[in-house]
Amino acid sequence: MTGLTVGDFSRATHLSIKTLRHYHQVGLLEPTAVNPDTGYRYYSAAQIPTAQVIRRLRDLEMPVADVKAVLAAPDASARNALITTHLSRLEAELAQTLAAVESLRNLLQPPDGATEFEHRSVRATAAAAIEAVVDRADALAWWQGALGELRATVRAQRLHATGAAGGVFASELFQYDHGRATVFIPVHGDVRPIGRVAPLVVPAAELAIISHHGSLADADLSYAKLGSYATTHEISIDGPLREYYLRGAGDTADEAEWRTEIGWPIFRADRPA
Questions:
Q1: Contacts of 134 (CB under 8 A, 6+ apart)
Q2: N or C: less crowded end of the chain, CB within 10 Å?
């Protein structure tokens, strides 16, 4: 048999023997002859330009089926249309890749002046708590009543508070105006269920924290800052939002002196799972 051996054709086209075998199997580039006794494949020199076109199209990640369509196109106009369509797909994928790269850069490089945000690892905490599913319109009134009842119960049971009172609020409360809300006081000692108060272990969490100063009536401004930061510069995860009431109405009547920490759940790659 005459023609180029598969080895010579491989060297001439820079396509590996393994690749040529695959292209033969899928019908993309078939040899001109195959020795029936040895199975050796032979190619013609006239196939070299076709192999070069195939290699360049595959380097552009064009699927085999589309390469076949290009080679079978009836004229240059049809071939160009197919290639242009593929290039447009590549450009769209490149734009998505660039957007993903920019997003990762934002994650790795928090913006200047981000000192108002803090990372915090919160351990699981034993607490006395009140939980309920509430409407967002009623949340503030429910929160005030529940926190008052909770503090009174902790005093009555002579429990020792181990930290500031807090709240845990399901995403649904903000997204759909109806969801689970929890207020709690971390305590040391056995909590006896009385009224709405029950023992609770507040789960551990990784949080991005912002400190809100003043009345909770305008806490939405701090929530907006925190949400913008966490979703842009952290790996934000689905989970309830948290509040810690460091200083409030029970400490001073001056709302300007009130201080609340707001926590947004995040995934921190620099900590073990």
A1: 142, 173, 178, 179, 180, 181
A2: C
Name every residue whose Cβ is closer than 8 Å to that of residue 243 and which is 6 or more positions away in sequence.
166, 167, 169, 219, 260, 261, 262, 263
What b-and-e string marks burial along 80-118, b requiring 16 or more CB atoms within 10 Å of the CB? eebbeebeeeeeeeeeeeeeeeeeeeeeeeeeeeeeebe
- The encoded tokens of residue 186 equal 């971390």
Local confidence band at 106 (pLDDT 50, 70, 90 cut-offs): low
Measured between its terminal Cα atoms, the distance across the chain in Å is 64
Alpha helices in 201-242 (DSSP H): 219-233
Task: Give residue 68's identity as a one-letter amino acid code.
Answer: K
pTM score, whole prediction: 0.64
- pLDDT tens-digit profile of 132-191? 999 999 999 999 999 999 999 999 999 999 999 999 999 999 989 999 999 999 999 999
**Which DSSP string do the residues of 127-175 spell out, in sequence order?**
EEEEEEEEEGGGHHHHHHHHHHHHHHHHHHTT-EE-S-EEEEE-HHHHH
